[in-house]
Fold:
Amino acid sequence: NAGVMQNPRHLVRRRGQEARLRCSPVKGHSHVYWYRQLPEEGLKFMVYLQKENIIDESGMPKERFSAEFPKEGPSILRIQQVVRGDSAAYFCASSPQGFEAFFGQGTRLTVV
Amino acid sequence: AQSVTQLGSHVSVSEGALVLLRCNYSSSVPPYLFWYVQYPNQGLQLLLKYTTGATLVKGINGFEAEFKKSETSFHLTKPSAHMSDAAEYFCAVRENKGTGKLIFGQGTTLQVKP
Structure:
């Protein structure tokens, strides 16, 4: 069984570009969470999605960040006009029923 | 609001020594608690979890944790450290509003000396 797959593993963007992070959940899981890990910090919740719906986006910055989990295909975390402060590791986790979460290996975003 | 505090951002032990990583939580309702391990440039791997029932929880790689409601603690222990245990460890509490999101502590880096 494949676990949570995130790609790319590493992403370098120049300031002002867009970053797209993809997450394919465990097969059969309909709940997806995104977390951000800033250097020397723990993980902070960003957004919780179920298929085609955003359930909780209380941890998402108000501007430039968006997330989706379409009926078909992976969940996407999109960051527009990236700034240096967006440099972090972004982790996706999936869950069958919103309980135990299985984490991907993360996407490490570097903004130069 | 729920929160998690991990005491000690860095812990260093000798190989073969006891590992003790401290975690205290704040929750108004019985919590669901988790310990995760993160190896360098890797994702998070679940070590163990507490939901209900037995307060001493055994996990993978010889780790265990005890839920102590009176102390609001969920400390992680391992009797004998191995070099391969060197990693970062995160304690987390599941938010009780029903979204299932996790609230993490700041993490503790475990160093194991030969």
Remarks:
- Residues 35 and 90 of chain A are 6 Å apart (CA to CA).
- The first strand of chain A starts at residue 5 and ends at 7.
- The radius of gyration of chain A is 13 Å.
